[in-house]
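Subject: mismatched residue count in predicted assembly?

I count 995 residues in my input, but I want to confirm that the predicted structure covers every chain. Input:
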Amino acid sequence: MGQLTMLKLRGKIEVVNKTWHEPRLLTVTANSSLPNVLRKKHVLLQDKDSLPIEGFAATILRQSSDQPSELSARGENLYIVGKDYDYLGDGDVVRLNPIGNSISSLYRRESNHNTVLLTERCNNYCLMCSQPPKDVDDSWIMDDAFELINLIPMQTQSLGFSGGEPTLYGSRFIELMRHVKNQLPTTSLDVLSNGRGFKDEEFARALGRVAHPDLMIGIPVYSDDPVRHDYIVQAQGAFDETIRGILNLKRFGQKVEIRIVIHRETLPRLVQTCEFIARNLVFVDHVALMGLEITGFTRANLGLLWADPADYKDTLSEAVSVLNSYGINTSVYNHQLCTINADVLPNYRRSISDWKNEYIDKCNSCSRKAECGGFFSSAVQYRHSDHITPFH
Amino acid sequence: MTFTLQFDANIYSGLAIEKACYRLSDVLAGVISKKDNNYVVDITFTGKEKSEEGIQSTLSRLKNEVLDQNLREKIKLETEPSRNLILAYAFSRTGLIANEATADGANE
Amino acid sequence: MGRMSKFQPMTFYNRGQSNQPLANYQLLPFKFSELDHSRYVMTNIAGEYLVASKEDVHAFANHNLPSTSATYINLRARHFLTDAHSKMAPDLLAIKLRTRNERLADFTGLHIFVVTLRCEHSCPYCQVSRQSEDKDSFDMTIDQANAALALAMRSPSKNIKLEFQGGESLLNFDLIKHIVVEAKRFNAENSDSQKNLGFVIATNLAVINDEILGFCKEHDIVISTSLDGPKDLHNKNRPRPGHDSYQRAIEGIKQSRNVLGRDKVSALMTTTEASLNQVEAIIDEYVENNFNGIFLRPLSPYGFAIKTKFYRAYNTQRWLDFYVKGLDYIIELNRQGIEFREHYAATILTKMLTSTDPGYVDLMSPAGIATGAIVYNYDGAVYASDEARMLAEMGDKKFKLGHVLENSYEEIFLNETLLEALEDSFAQSVPMCTDCAFEPYCGADPVFHWGQHGDLVGRKPDSEFCQRNMSIFKYLIDSMESDKFVRTLFLRWAN
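Triage response: the counts match. Full output below for your records.
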């Protein structure tokens, strides 16, 4: 009961009685009677007081106050999790790392949209990046991704890929797309990318050849002004590469979504940017206008970026109106109902992901709470509109 | 009564002057000759209007007409490539444009 | 941890070659024309406009515009210049230009069949002679209709619209039925070049009945009728025996809508001397009768208008006053929440605000004569446009391209006069038009200019076509610049 809060997807935990010493991807099951032949690929999810069951690759034990030493005879490969991991459920896929003593949730069956991180490297350095880039060789993440795809159930409706910049893997990225198409032929995909890699015609063509039936690339364009866009992504020449990438992707039949994060540096030309899209990129499949998420670099740059949605509601209305006039599919995310004008309602979406929504105390008396997307937990914690007003 | 106008041959083409005279041939008759680097037009007024004002007005019309025809010629020449391109594109799917192979010979 | 978390300011990304803000820039092709005493309208090669102060435009052209100025940033974003910070403009402009011109190769989309010259009305402004009901020599024959249909289907356009006009077209309804059925049969038999067929009947609705409407419903035919304004104005403009043109039109509209649906019945008004001081009443009439828009048309200087000295009463400025007042009134209606649009403005706005070609014959360059629309007359003669037909009725057959039973498709569309008219009137090759910022929104109208000035091109300073259109272009742009509501409204109209 109670509202969903920010989930802890990965962290350090106690690991006891290890018999294997390399990271493994395993499917979670709560079924202690799982046929023997399947147990090696599964990790059993149990309460601490349950009887130990044999044959599973590992066991995740939900925390109690007992000391780990009491588990010395309880069985092998025990991964002890606290309340933070109460969300874990049957059908999830986790990465268990006995070397680093950690657990990561890679796929949650309950989620209506899972996103797979492919790398933390990036060739942009956005002022508001929610996943600050790291310049390390993390290609092991890509290796894991291939394996993860094998474990994800075929009836999964949708799957996302992001980073960092996924296309930095070049042809390996294309292979991954082909692999997903083969393993999950009816799953719709979205990939978040800065699009710059697709300035290379051959790379775009290669993705086109995969001929995925339902794949959309989500690419940020932060301004119609190349200088402003380059500034926001902190990379000289990024605008041209991104636009060229979008054009190439469309040439080869690929669906493209344009994403714009709304903050003080994009606001001065938000309407012109939408007009630019309408005049030059009218063939894009979707435009997403997004509220600021107060994580990563956004927190460091908050003084530069923060704008109260209540103050920019008219600009948002105008921007949406431009896109609607040209018949471009447009959605507005990450805003609260009381911070937008009514004319934006047809384009308003409750949320992107189901697990990030929270509300503040004021919202308890709001008559439209159920239709409202609420806040990111980061917004609740750090910064949100000063003009949140419940509807009556 | 004859009036004479001179047009600098560096700027105006003979053809433009001819066309202009022709267009106003309902009210005047022009005889064109070339002297040094100028076109000379001897004008006889044949129209009904014989007043000083009327004649000046007709002369102005002629001057404007020469200018107009001159500009048409220059601009038409300058814009020929893009005009041909667009007209060819407009007719491109009608089946009315001759094949490259059967159109004007290579050396025409 | 990799790169230091150091963020650069915007000026870092706006550096020129010597680390100074003013960067070199190159001009991309553009034209400019005066909007008013202090501003120019600039248009780029793809027909997108930008309004700027005269000083800014001069500075821009002289390479003195600082790269930090708002105008500079707009000029770069709208593809009037390139500089070191972006080289995307040429490719994007090429795509837009290609899109703008795409429809040209579709060629003739509108095919007008004048199925009869007979009509029981005697409208003074009518483009065709009045003929009484019993003159059967003024009906198109079946042979002519078949030949005309074959010519129409020969068009490379995927979308073919067959429009039936007259006289009063319904007086020869049998032939209309024949042509519709034949057209569909032809289409079904030619599966490799299937067309999307659209049918329109232009009628005064005085003789509409259930049988006709049933046929229209069965074959998805839409109705276009005349409604000149309130009852007195309409009846004065459109006399018929019984003096009941208005009542019949209104009843006919209701009846047609009941059978076909509201969106299948449209109306056109014709502007006369009597209309000029009643624009709001005319618009009210359309609003009251549940139309979602009106086309405020200029009076065309052909046919009966000249014969009955009607035309003298009309001049450009008075019509412009009429138009602007009407447009302002319509904008007011929209401000009050009534969705109603002016169709001529909407057509122009499509050209101004999108790369889509609305395919409006009178505003096309190359001219829309034959390339956009063509007329098959009741006597089998083929005319390059409706205007060309009207000119012929006045005795000037310059733009008669041939005869459906005597000339082939090649002979008709390669007619010397036609080709000469297309080439000579090409707007970008014509003095004044070639430099005009509004040329992307305008068109060549060689038939009008031939009729008025005896010249396919016309002298644009003297041309009413030019004066009228330029005034409208400036008015639309100025309105959008000064009023956000209008800009938002016009954006919707444009799409």
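The mean pLDDT of chain A is 92. Marking this ticket as 'not a bug'.
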